């Protein structure tokens, strides 16, 4: 059974699941799959027609690997700034032995997580469900988990040392925990953020396209509000006539097993297939401007072998399966650095990206009918005196007075503390 997975985190789609009767057949948990595929030519058919993605052209080469002792500065300079994927094997502790279904259910089963149900092509429905219920269903049903990892689980989750200091540590966005069973395939996609993808149990195969173009038209792309891109190509049954471009697009591959991580730079198109029971942790961090040097005064020469994820300063944390800002006290300087993160590698911050951030932060306040200025109003106030309505520049943001940032700081703080107040105090 093939399950299409897609990172589609629209808050509006989260509902509370009822127990659901699925197909009832256990999924195929076979880990022995040939990858990259051996291509089969048929004279009368375009190569790879109605075959999975990857059958349309021979893989160029494996994605390069670096040593597990790679230091953060080298990682940043060669790969993050260099815009290159890299595999680092054995840098996180495998979780297959500790995090069995029984253990997870016993210790964390009461926590609400988000799971995605395959409803129709391209759009999956997110449901909020206790982890225990998910674990009872995922080996049979078309269901996989993708949740911002709950704080309660972070002590047992490894935080890779290669991103635990300097420039990268200060740009951490959020950690997502994925659990799936059987053969599942993601869409062909590219994220607006950099991602470190670590497999904690099972096996995942990756296809990474190496394209010069940000938005290849041939991929038939859909863009999400947060800047992520995904392709409408059916990755299980590719129409090789419609998507002829796949015969020309070079791709690289790797297979990750427990303990291995892959760095995928922002805007690299990739597709993932999981086999067996897989547990994976993906850590997103904001791209930097290419000119930005590595700052690493907090980097240790011999970092500890194990650091728990609870020590990582993420922008977002999880609470009842919804994103919340991690900080409780939010100053105008925090606002400036949040907005700088939203710039990513760009010289400009576009209004749409800001509005998406603002909607996420204020969603719950809004649901409680707390009176707030709209995202557009806040944007206008931040961006007044700028010649363009559509975007702001880095210099403009760096120059903004603390006073002009205070309004947004107040709103963000209200939102961060939403569960510590009664409604009339907000
Ligand atoms: C999970 O969500 C349900 C429904 O919203 C809620 O009643 C329950 O208290 C939540 N459980 C936890 C541990 O937050
Ligand atoms: C990195 O490479 C991708 C294509 O593989 C490209 O779209 C993107 O613009 C590049 N990023 C930078 C910062 O050069
Ligand atoms: C930023 O402030 C400096 C000094 O006040 C000024 O010279 C510069 O023009 C300002 N830049 C922008 C983009 O507002």
Radius of gyration based on Cα positions:
22 Å
CATH architecture of the largest domain: Sandwich
Global morphology = globular
Q: Which structural class best describes the helix and strand composition?
A: alpha+beta
Number of domains: 2
Ligand types: 2-acetamido-2-deoxy-beta-D-glucopyranose
- Unreliable runs: 1-22
CATH class category label of the largest domain: Mainly Beta
Written description of the protein model:
This protein has 426 residues and is of the alpha+beta class. It has 2 domains: 3-311, Jelly Rolls; 327-425, Recoverin, domain 1. Helices cover 21% and strands 26% of the residues. It has 10 helices and 21 strands. It has helices spanning 72-80, 101-108, 131-137, 151-154, 166-169, 332-343, 351-367, 375-382, 394-399, 402-416; strands at residues 3-5, 15-16, 61-62, 65-66, 86-88, 112-118, 124-130, 143-148, 172-180, 184-186, 189-190, 194-209, 221-223, 229-231, 251-257, 261-264, 270-285, 316-319, 322-325, 348-350, 391-393. Strand 18 and strand 19 form a beta hairpin. Helix 6 (332-343) packs across helix 10 (402-416) and helix 7 (351-367) packs across helix 10 (402-416). The chain is globular. One 2-acetamido-2-deoxy-beta-D-glucopyranose binds next to loops. Residues 16, 110-112, 320 line the site of one 2-acetamido-2-deoxy-beta-D-glucopyranose.
């Amino acid at each position: 059974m093939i399950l299409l997975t897609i990172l589609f985190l629209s808050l509006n789609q989260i509902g509370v699941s009822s127990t659901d009767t699925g197909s009832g057949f256990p999924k195929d948990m076979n880990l022995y799959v040939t990858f990259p595929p051996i291509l089969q030519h048929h004279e009368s058919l375009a190569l790879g027609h109605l075959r999975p993605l990857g059958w349309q052209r021979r893989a160029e080469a494996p994605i390069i690997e670096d040593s597990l002792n790679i230091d953060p500065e080298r990682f940043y300079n060669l790969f993050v700034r260099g815009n290159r994927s890299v595999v680092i094997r054995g840098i996180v502790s495998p979780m297959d032995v500790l995090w069995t279904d029984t253990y997870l259910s016993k210790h964390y089963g009461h926590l609400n997580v988000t799971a995605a149900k395959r409803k129709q092509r391209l759009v999956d429905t997110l449901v909020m469900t206790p982890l225990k219920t998910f674990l009872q269903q995922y080996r049979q049903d078309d269901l996989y988990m993708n949740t911002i990892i709950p704080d309660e689980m972070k002590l047992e989750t490894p935080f890779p040392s290669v991103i635990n200091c300097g420039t990268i540590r200060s740009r951490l966005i959020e950690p997502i925990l994925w659990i799936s069973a059987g053969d599942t395939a993601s869409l062909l996609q590219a994220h607006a953020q950099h991602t470190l993808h670590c497999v904690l149990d099972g096996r995942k195969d990756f296809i990474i396209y190496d394209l010069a173009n940000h938005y290849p038209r041939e991929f038939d792309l859909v863009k999400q509000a947060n800047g992520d891109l995904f392709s409408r190509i059916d990755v299980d049954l590719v129409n090789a006539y419609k998507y002829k471009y796949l015969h020309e697009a070079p791709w690289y591959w790797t297979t990750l097993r427990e303990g291995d991580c892959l760095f995928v730079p922002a805007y690299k198109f990739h597709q993932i297939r999981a086999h067996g029971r897989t547990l994976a942790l993906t850590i997103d961090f904001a791209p930097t401007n290419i000119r930005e040097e590595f700052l690493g005064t907090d980097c240790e020469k011999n970092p500890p072998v194990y650091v728990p994820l609870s020590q990582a300063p993420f922008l977002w944390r999880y609470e009842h399966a919804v994103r919340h800002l991690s900080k409780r006290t939010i100053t105008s300087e925090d606002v400036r650095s949040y907005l700088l993160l939203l710039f990513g590698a760009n010289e400009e911050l576009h209004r749409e990206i800001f509005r998406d951030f603002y909607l996420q932060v204020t969603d719950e306040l809004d649901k409680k009918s707390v009176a707030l200025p709209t995202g557009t109003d806040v944007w206008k106030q931040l961006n007044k005196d700028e010649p363009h309505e559509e975007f702001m520049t880095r210099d403009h943001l760096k120059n903004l007075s603390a006073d002009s940032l205070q309004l947004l700081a107040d709103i963000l703080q209200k939102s961060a503390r939403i569960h510590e107040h009664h409604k009339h105090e907000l």
